[in-house]
């Protein structure tokens, strides 16, 4: 699956594979890719974004193995149904990337489709790509509002929750404990999935905007796997961004709102 580096592409660049940005871009999810790019480039490490929307992007499909980090976003059920066969078609390649340690960030419908199964409200069961050992069930009351977690790895995480589904992650690690919102189950407890190089969640916002430590964790996993280094690990511009994000987290966590 390895392809030669195309003319104009940098061998020293960190490469982000963005899956189905046209279909699965609800709730500003594409902003996560921009945040990853900005945080890497401000530290002196260039980024190349490979966008894949389906079979017409054959040149990008041939370069899947170049990806250092993979992102897939969210969308309504109608978009999820369209995306399902497209995800199935590349599931083997994606499993190979995950098994090779490439970090994945999957949000909302993308997280569901990279799981094992998705049970729709009609009872129909969609077979997922089986990267994440999770099962999703649609149904129940839709939850819309601020979302606050406490992560044992990085502390408070804030974002936005907009879903009518439940996720069974079994005994696996999660993104964090729910402080405000619902999370994976009908009884608030834990949210998402986070083990090794796989991070999945229903936290929108986009997720990485107010939680730069998550972005840096994904970037570190991606760049260290290839031995890529930052030329300026702590630029002043990011210090200001991080302080603004810290203040936003504190404000949301202190007085979260929901519909």
UniProtKB/TrEMBL annotation:
It catalyses: beta-D-GlcNAc-(1->4)-Mur2Ac(oyl-L-Ala-gamma-D-Glu-L-Lys-D-Ala-D-Ala)-di-trans,octa-cis-undecaprenyl diphosphate + L-glutamine + ATP + H2O = beta-D-GlcNAc-(1->4)-Mur2Ac(oyl-L-Ala-D-isoglutaminyl-L-Lys-D-Ala-D-Ala)-di-trans,octa-cis-undecaprenyl diphosphate + L-glutamate + ADP + phosphate + H(+); L-glutamine + H2O = L-glutamate + NH4(+). The gene is gatD. Substrate binds at residue 142. Belongs to the CobB/CobQ family. GatD subfamily. The active site is at 204. Its EC number is 6.3.5.13, 3.5.1.2. Residues 32-211 form the CobB/CobQ-like glutamine amidotransferase domain. It comes from Herbiconiux gentiana. InterPro entries: Class_I_gatase-like, GATase_3, Lipid_II_synth_GatD. The lipid II isoglutaminyl synthase complex catalyzes the formation of alpha-D-isoglutamine in the cell wall lipid II stem peptide. The GatD subunit catalyzes the hydrolysis of glutamine to glutamate and ammonia. The resulting ammonia molecule is channeled to the active site of MurT. Keywords: Cell shape, Cell wall biogenesis/degradation, Glutamine amidotransferase, Hydrolase, Ligase, Peptidoglycan synthesis. It holds the Pfam family GATase_3. Forms a heterodimer with MurT. Pathway: Cell wall biogenesis; peptidoglycan biosynthesis. This is Lipid II isoglutaminyl synthase (glutamine-hydrolyzing) subunit GatD.
């Amino acid at each position: 699956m390895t392809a030669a580096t195309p003319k104009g592409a940098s061998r020293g660049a960190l490469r982000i594979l963005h899956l189905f940005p046209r279909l699965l871009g609800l709730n500003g999810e594409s902003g996560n890719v921009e945040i990853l790019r900005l945080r890497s480039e401000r530290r002196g490490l260039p980024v190349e974004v490979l966008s894949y929307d389906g079979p017409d992007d054959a040149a990008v499909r041939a370069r899947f193995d170049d990806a250092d980090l993979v992102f897939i976003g969210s969308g309504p059920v109608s978009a999820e149904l369209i995306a399902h066969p497209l995800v199935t078609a590349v599931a083997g390649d994606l499993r190979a990337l995950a098994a090779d340690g490439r970090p994945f960030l999957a949000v909302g419908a993308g997280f569901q489709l990279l799981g094992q199964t998705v049970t729709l409200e009609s009872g129909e069961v969609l077979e997922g790509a089986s990267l994440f050992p999770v099962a999703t069930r649609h149904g129940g009351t839709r939850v819309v509002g601020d979302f606050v977690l406490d992560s044992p790895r990085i502390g408070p995480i804030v974002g936005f929750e907009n879903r009518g589904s439940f996720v069974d992650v079994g005994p696996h690690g999660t993104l964090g404990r729910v402080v405000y919102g619902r999370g994976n189950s009908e009884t608030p407890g834990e949210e998402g999935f986070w083990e090794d190089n796989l991070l999945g969640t229903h936290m929108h916002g986009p997720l990485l905007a107010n939680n730069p430590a998550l972005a840096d964790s994904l970037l570190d996993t991606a760049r260290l796997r290839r031995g890529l280094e930052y030329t300026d690990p702590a630029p002043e511009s990011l210090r200001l961004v991080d302080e603004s994000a810290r203040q936003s987290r504190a404000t949301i966590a202190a007085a979260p709102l929901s519909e």
